[in-house]
Write a structure and sequence with these properties.
- There is one protein chain.
- The protein has 127 residues and is an all-alpha fold.
- The protein has a domain at 52-127.
- It is 74% helix and 0% strand.
- The chain has helices at 3-18, 22-45, 50-59, 63-102, 123-126.
- Helix 2 (22-45) runs antiparallel to helix 4 (63-102).
- The protein is elongated and about 60 Å long.
- The termini are far apart.
- The model has no long low-confidence stretch (mean pLDDT 77).
Length: 127
Amino acid sequence: MAKRPIVTAAALLVALGGGSGCTVVKPVVCTFATPWQFVESAVDSRELDEDDRADDEAERLPTACVCLAAPIVIPIRIVERMVTGCIGGFCTGLVSDLNVLVGNSERPAKNLLEAWRTNARTPSEAE
């Protein structure tokens, strides 16, 4: 009776090791990569030229409102991005594993950090 869980665990490890493992790995990676990408894009979008700064000054929130809302809104937004990254990573990881099984991908880890992209070959790569 004790051999059954060991055999099941060994079969699961062989199945995961034989494929790309994106269904298991990609949700975990995207859980932490997606919020980081969101922060990077927010920082990159803040680089404004002089004309944009004048318009931006008029639309700024008062400092008191930002100080009161930031400790609540920022962690909620990060958690939301983590959940979105995990769900997107799971869905596209499953599709990526199917692409590996049917031979539609040469690089199993392609787009591992992108929650909404699979490792499928584009038509130009397929030729």
